[in-house]
Amino acid sequence: MRGLLASSIGVTCAAALVLPLTPTAAAAITRPAPTAEAATRPTERSTPGHTESLPLTTLPTTRATPSTPTVPDQGVSRRGVHRFSLVGVVWDDPDTELHGWVRVRTRATATGTWSDWQDIETHNAEHAADPDTAERTSGRVRGSTAPLWVGDSDAVEVRVRVDQAQGPYATPLPTGLRLELVDPGRTAEPLLPTTRPAIQAVAAPHDAPANTMTAETAAASAANTELAPMGVMEIPALTPDQTRHELFTLRGTELTEEQRAKPYIGPRPRIVTRRGWGANESWREKKFVYTKKVKAAFVHHTASGNGYKCSQAPSVIRGIYRYHVLSMGWRDIGYNFIVDKCGNIYEGRAGGVAKPVLGAHTLGFNTHSMGIALLGSHASSKPSGAAVKAVARLTAWKLGLFGANPRGKTYLKSGGGNLYAKGRNVRLNVISGHRDGFATECPGLQLYRKLGTTRTTAAELQGR
Prior knowledge:
Residues 30-76 are annotated as: Disordered. This protein is an alpha+beta fold.
């Protein structure tokens, strides 16, 4: 997710983060180790979660700082806070970039020990709604870093510094910098039921206005897999024959005789619904926004770190959802689907897993595409085989619903970005990495290198 122009920002300033503590400050943040009673105390089965928002202030220069910064550092000094598991920084103007770095350290609730300093990905603007869309121009959207998963914590310290390589004319830090500490809460229900019968698909109209859901569409969708009815924890996997039946039911009138005779589509994989990962549906906007079709899939990583267990993935997703909507001001979580390192697939933005839901994942290319994000960071860490296979299964099915060949090319019209001017028709791989549509390091080099394998596997699953 880091913009390519910022990739030269390294660890040369790491020494500046070894900040000495006064005895008074050290005493203020020290607490006893958890007692045996506390360690065994049962936790609440369901808690709503919260976000603590702290304004960043100018930090004093310390002996550890090799030279006086051109622009003073901002941050939050060590302090105890409410429990949280995910952290990010937001600011007022979404069109302003943070040219510099953000580093954070946190104290684990379970052990009382402080983490090492961790970098938070600062270039997050390319994961956004397209320019001139209602979501982008709502007046609620803020600039932001990527979110970072740090695990259950109860104290924090953060420092933000401009890129000193800019010299005496360094770009000031954005205005209104705030530290967002997100507690994703806990859900009372298990992630998934042990068994669940397949849900019969019901055809829904696709010619509704692109920015609303008609009453007829809502009625048809209430009983169908496209909208995952209330209470459903997962959409089950289907066999190839069942998937073809689903295709004919959903899009049969649009298929040619040749497509009906030999439909190229992979079997539908199991998908954990929003209910399954515990989405609070009161946060997002109620209306759904659709594009006309899905011609391409953009693969991302969330840049939120790899230090989560697969059992924690729903919590991480709830944290990202809360950050996207309540901290960044988006209408819903940005990605259409999320995949964890164990290969579990999760429904992202609401509106129906089989529908062409308009996301906010690839600035300039959200129309006629879908965004799939691997939960983690993959600049230097290889994605798991299970996650790569899950992306292949998901794209073989979803692209197959719209007749797209995973090994093929397609044209998308740019909505505006830093690689392609607005209105330009761009030839892209049907399965592309985020960096193919925007100058960014996302989805990370190690994941990007796996896309060739993903395309081949997805095409084979479609029977090509």
